[in-house]
Amino acid sequence: MEIHSGCLTIIMQPVIVGPDRIPVLTDSKQMAADLLTAALSVSVMAHGHLPEVTEAFIKLLTDLPDDDAASLFGYTIDMAAPQARRLLEETVTTYIPEHSPWAQSLYRKGQEEGEYRGRAAGEAASVLAVLRFRGIDVPLDRHQQITTCTDLALLEDWLQRALEATHIDDLFDDGSAAESRS
What we know:
about 180 residues, 9 helices
């Protein structure tokens, strides 16, 4: 797996390691020398439960370009265990001023993702409202398929189809309409 952002590139190869094989990094300069080990040290796999490790990681983030810091933080927190995730989030709010460019970049990214999810949820609700209005029964599995969809183009397509649908399967291009009506 490769993660690219600005100048930061992390290439992950499948590796099986435990916490005993990952060093405890408490110095941001050590972390800067090996970003992958830094991410692993802070994350789920190793030592993210130690405040001195997360503090060093946050110091590392403040020294990186804003986009790289936001990407590395996102990558690290995504694979963090719940305890390490909480500590990372708490440490970020303690050590990173909210007006810093890095924090603003992280906030913008989260805000954009939230807006996108909100648009998808609204579109899904519209599809279901049109189907209800048209008196079309929506089985639980199809209801879940609609409400968990995050593809805005597909949701818009379903909404258009819902306007003329006579059966729930009229929305989907998966061949189930012909099967269920035969």
